[in-house]
Design goal:
The protein has helices spanning 3-16, 26-30, 34-55, 61-71, 74-84, 90-100, 112-130, 134-155. By secondary structure, the protein is an all-alpha fold.
Length: 157
């Protein structure tokens, strides 16, 4: 991106921060770029997991960070999406499919398939969050966490 464009966007962002955010309707959110949805969805999942870990009574930051890093990984997110896919409605499936097919840089810590599926999972969460579907988002987050917890207890026991 050109330097002048970046400066323009920074100035625009600084001007808008602190003002009331516009309420986006579901169609506007549905039409957003899939990676933008994944960007906010990643934050939703990360925050949810961090809060859930603290709720367990673990307060050692090194342990919290280690567990959060594992759970928020592309590997786990791709497994979660596979597990919950049957629970998704048509709009949610379309959002996740669009995100899965978006090309982006794949980190060395994940396979291409895992990364695409994790991007799809994050976009789903971002779509639900930005479109104000809090009850549905909470349902998906809770189902996802229960799946991870169940699988981790089988791996360790």
């Amino acid at each position: 991106m050109e330097f002048k464009r970046v400066l323009f966007l920074k100035k625009q962002m600084a001007h808008k921060i602190g003002k009331a955010s516009p309420v986006l309707d579901e169609q506007e959110v549905f039409s957003m770029d899939a990676l933008t949805l994944a960007y906010i969805g990643d934050a939703c999942w990360s925050f949810f997991i961090r809060k859930a870990l603290i709720d367990t009574g673990i307060y050692n930051v090194q342990i919290l960070n280690s567990l959060a890093s594992e759970i928020v990984s592309a590997r786990w997110q791709s497994r979660i999406l596979f597990e919950i896919r049957e629970l998704l409605n048509e709009r949610e499936l379309k959002v996740s499919k669009r995100a899965r097919n978006t090309s982006s840089h794949v980190p060395k810590s994940a396979t291409v398939e895992e990364y695409r599926e994790s991007t799809a999972f994050e976009a789903l969460l971002g779509y639900l969050y930005l479109s104000g579907q809090k009850q549905r988002l909470d349902f998906i987050l809770e189902k996802s966490l229960r799946y991870v917890a169940g699988e981790m207890s089988h791996e360790n026991g």
